[in-house]
Amino acid sequence: MLICEQSGALSQIPEIKHGFFKRHGGVSAGLYSSLNCGFGSHDDRNCVEQNRERVSHWLNIKPQNLHTLMQVHGNNVHVVNQGAEALSKDGDGLVTASAGIAVGVLTADCVPVLFADPYACVVGVAHAGWQGALHGVVGAVVDSMICKGASRENIVASLGPAIAQASYQVKEDFITKIRRHCTFDIDQFIVFKNDEIYFDLPKFVVSQCYRAGIQEVDNLAIDTYTSDQEYFSYRRSCHNGESDYGRQISVIMIES
Question: What is the CA angle 117-54-256, rounded to 5?
Fold first, then answer.
C-alpha cells in the first residue's frame, strides 16, 4: 500500500491533490525497496516504471501524465501543458496550470517543495538541494507560476521530508562556498558543535520561499537520514557503504 505525508496547508485547497510519498508500496527490491521512482538509480527500469504507475493510479491519472525531470541541482524550470509528452529535459522545477497533469520531484535528502496558487489554479515543484536553493530554484519556480497567472501573495509552499540539520554535518569549505555566493547572512542556518559544523538545509529553503514573496510556508520537518524504514537517503547510503540508493517522489496536481 502506498503511504504518503500531506501538507496541512495544501490539504486546505479542494482543487489540489498532492503527496510526499514514502518508500513503501512498490515492487523494487534490495537497496531500492520498494517504491523507488527514480530512473537515475541503477534499479531495474521496469520496476521504476511500475512504481510510478502505482503513484499515477493513486492520483487517478494515466502514467504519461506524471511528469518529472532529469534533475541537475540547478534552477531551470519547465512548464508542462496539456498533452505534453514525457519530459526528458534537465531541470529542477516544473509548473503547470493544466488539470489532470501531475508534476513531481525526486529526492533522497534534498528538499522537495510543492507550490500551489488556489485562486489561479497553478501548481509547481522544486528540487531544492543546497546548490539549487543557492542559485534560486525556488524563486525561479515562483516566477514561472506568475507567468502562468499565479499571484505571489497567494502561493502556498510546502517542504517535504529532507535531511535535517542534526544529520547534515558539513565542512568549512562548504560554508565558505555558501558565504561566497549567498547575498544574505547564513549564520542562522549553521550550528557549530566543537569542531563539527551542521547546516540547516530545510530552513535555508524556507528562507528562499519567504524571499520569493511567499507568505504561507509549511515545513513537514521530517528527517530522511534518520527515517531509514520510511525514506531513501543519499547520505545514509554513503555512510553505510552502499553502492546506490532509491528516490522517493513528491507530487502535486490540479484535479480535473
Answer: 35
pTM recorded for the entire structure: 0.98
Contacts of 113 (CB under 8 A, 6+ apart): 105, 125, 126, 128, 138, 141, 157, 158, 159, 160, 205, 209
Q: Rounded to an integer, what distance in angstroms lies between the CA atom of residue 158 and that of residue 179?
A: 26
Give the integer Cα–Cα distance in Å for 196 and 165. Answer: 12
Domain count for the chain: 1
Q: Residue 244 belongs to what domain range? A: 4-254
The CATH number assigned to the domain holding 145 equals 3.60.140.10
Distance, CA of 96 to CA of 102 (rounded, Å): 8
Q: What is the pLDDT of residues 205-219, one digit of tens each?
A: 999 999 999 999 999
